[in-house]
Design brief:
Layout: H1 3-21, E1 32-36, E2 39-43, E3 49-55, E4 60-65, E5 68-73, E6 95-97, E7 102-105, E8 115-119, E9 123-125, E10 133-135, H2 145-150, H3 166-173, E11 177-180, E12 191-198, E13 201-208, E14 214-216, E15 221-223, H4 239-242, H5 250-257, E16 261-264, E17 275-282, E18 285-292, E19 298-300, E20 305-307, E21 318-323, E22 326-327
Antiparallel strand pairs: 1-2, 2-3, 4-5, 6-7, 7-8, 8-21, 9-10, 11-12, 12-13, 14-15, 16-17, 17-18, 19-20, 21-22
The structure holds 2-acetamido-2-deoxy-beta-D-glucopyranose.
Amino acid sequence: MSSYFLRLLLFLTCLVAATRSTCNVCNSVNKMACYSMTQTKVCDANNLPSGAPFDCPPGYMCVSGSGGVLCQPKAPSSNVADCQDCNKCDASQTFACTGTRSFALCLGTNVPQQSRGNCASGYVCNNGIKEICELATSVNPSCSTVDDTTTTTAPTTPPTPSTNDAAAYCAAVKKQGNFAVGEFTETTCRQYIQCSLTNGKWVGKKYACAGSTFFDRTVGQCVTNKPSYCYTPTTNPPTTTTAAPTTSNPAAYCAKLQSQGYFPVGTNPKTTCHQYIKCYQLSGSWLGKGYTCPGNLYYNSSTKTCVSTLPATCSDRIESISLNGVELE
Ligand SMILES: *[C@@H]1O[C@H](CO)[C@@H](O)[C@H](O)[C@H]1NC(C)=O
């Protein structure tokens, strides 16, 4: 190969790398930046994108190149839009950047999972690097600040009100009908709370099912056959139903995750990075089992194997990671 060709190849590679990873980076040619794949922003005196974004016309995308930041036609040209690496899983299927400082785990797939990770302060997410988060002073984030504002955290489900006080329960539930009280075969599984709206106020009353019948929450009435979820408590009620779904409680973790397979436990290189959890379903219930990799091996969430290299998720560049709302330890 001639050295000219090599240089050309290097130049083209750099060009592609440069255009693909810029997002919110001011182009010195026309002092503008791509704010998203289809939006531009004007840069201020401090060389930072500012003010309201401008939309490219339909069929156009934002490209930062040697001619400055311009809206250029999409197909069929070979134009590559800026900001396009956002929400895309990296080559190793480990993570996808979802905002300038946030990411999601991909767990060995090409789809960002229900997961939220945050880079430590001063770091940004770039999906072209193995480390996930890199110093903001040395790389550009793969996502734009526009992605930060559109990232909504999963809605938190309000805590289920206690069934001890029927009136308070109905005031919180605000729904007409019959509701289950609990799951103990001989006591709460035979009771229900009836909520109704009377003179604009929610009122509730606790009732016992007639005879030896049980209250079935799926049909909302008393039935003769014992529902499968009713159980006889031993000395203590099972911890799985009340314990917080942390990874130190695999069953509760899997019940919240609602997904079959192997999952990472945490981000601590000394402890939780060596561990993983297997979630599975048995007769309708989610169960979990915790494992530790042999020797000094670490759990790799993308290959789902125990490996000798420290995973990128186990670094103090990472502030936190959650999966389906469960915070990894
Ligand atoms: C998991 O292993 C793959 C293949 O060795 C590697 O590319 C990837 O970066 C590893 N994942 C993490 C989280 O380090």
